[in-house]
């Protein structure tokens, strides 16, 4: 199991480099060495982040306006046409990456978000098959809070603020239509100004409700699209300072019931049965900015033979 699953992280040292680990070996007690992937597409001092992964491809954003589709397994990448966002003027990009199964096409979505505007927001979508950006219907369903949409079931999902109320809005990559999904009903009861995070639990939508005190409540949508199927599976304790660490966006359920997750700047494995954390034995990496899991594939992001170099 997990023989083709890889954990990819953006490391803090060396700065902005990718580290890649075998998920199968990561779960064993022996120390795990990493592969450093040195990208050659920009200034290494410019912040980078992982937009998402799908079918072995990883979408990477560099300084907001540059997006790259990359398959780490075959060391090939494609640089997408440049986006002009007027950075520094209160304008930012909310984005997402996924696969349009109906049209057999990989797509990247860019929402032009402004802190001075409460919608509607201009939206562009990039088609790998067409190799171009085009405009689609504006994002009119509140203010997207997530930097990157979560890809599930052929759709991208963002947590949004609609007049002070939280909801989830999806964008179908095939029909390019928006839909409201609904958050867990009364899940934040008893919370004092909770912090909500939309994420992925293996291949399902999940939400974390952080009480900023001792724990986080993990809710999972067991049946996609059915609001009543939201179920609280775990109450996960903080092992650091509550509210200090960034919230985890990607959790992976392992064979033995443990959960692999990124917590702040570290990768940890949580055992719900014993209610304890443990640190996997990762060599040569002290801290990370972000992590995700992808499955090895031979899917090529580009017809040109552009490669990233392995150190």
Automatic annotation (TrEMBL):
Protein name (database record): F-box associated beta-propeller type 1 domain-containing protein
InterPro entries xrefs: F-box-assoc_dom_typ1 (IPR006527), F-box-assoc_interact_dom (IPR017451), F-box_domain (IPR052361), Gal_Oxase/kelch_b-propeller (IPR011043)
Pfam family, one: FBA_1
Residue ranges occupied by any F-box associated beta-propeller type domain in the UniProt entry: 43-235
Organism: Rehmannia glutinosa (Chinese foxglove)
């Amino acid at each position: 199991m997990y023989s083709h699953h890889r954990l990819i992280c953006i490391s803090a040292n060396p700065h902005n480099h990718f580290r890649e680990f075998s998920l199968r070996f990561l779960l064993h007690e022996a120390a795990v060495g990493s592969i450093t992937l040195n990208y050659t597409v920009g200034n290494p001092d410019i912040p980078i982040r992982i937009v998402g992964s799908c079918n072995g491809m990883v979408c990477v954003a560099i300084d907001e306006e540059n997006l790259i589709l990359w398959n780490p397994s075959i060391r090939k990448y494609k640089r997408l046409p440049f986006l002009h966002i007027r950075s520094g003027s209160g304008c930012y990009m909310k984005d997402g990456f996924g696969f349009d199964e109906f049209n057999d096409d990989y797509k990247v979505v860019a929402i032009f978000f402004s802190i001075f505007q409460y919608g509607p927001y201009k939206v562009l979508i990039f088609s790998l098959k067409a190799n171009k950006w085009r405009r689609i219907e504006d994002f009119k369903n509140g203010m997207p809070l997530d930097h990157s949409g979560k890809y599930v079931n052929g759709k991208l999902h963002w947590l949004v603020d609609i007049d002070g109320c939280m909801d989830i809005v999806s964008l179908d990559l095939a029909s390019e239509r928006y839909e409201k999904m609904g958050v867990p009903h009364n899940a934040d009861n008893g919370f004092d100004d909770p912090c909500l995070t939309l994420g992925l639990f293996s291949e399902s939508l999940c939400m974390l409700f952080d009480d900023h005190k001792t724990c986080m409540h993990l809710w999972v949508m067991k049946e996609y699209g059915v609001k009543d199927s939201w179920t609280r599976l775990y109450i996960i304790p903080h092992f650091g300072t509550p509210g200090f660490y960034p919230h985890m966006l990607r959790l992976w359920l392992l064979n033995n019931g443990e959960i692999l997750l990124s917590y702040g700047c570290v990768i940890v494995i949580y055992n719900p049965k014993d209610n304890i954390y443990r640190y996997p034995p990762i060599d040569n990496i002290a801290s990370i900015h972000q992590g995700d899991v992808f499955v090895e594939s031979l899917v090529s992001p580009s017809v040109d033979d552009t490669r990233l170099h392995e150190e």
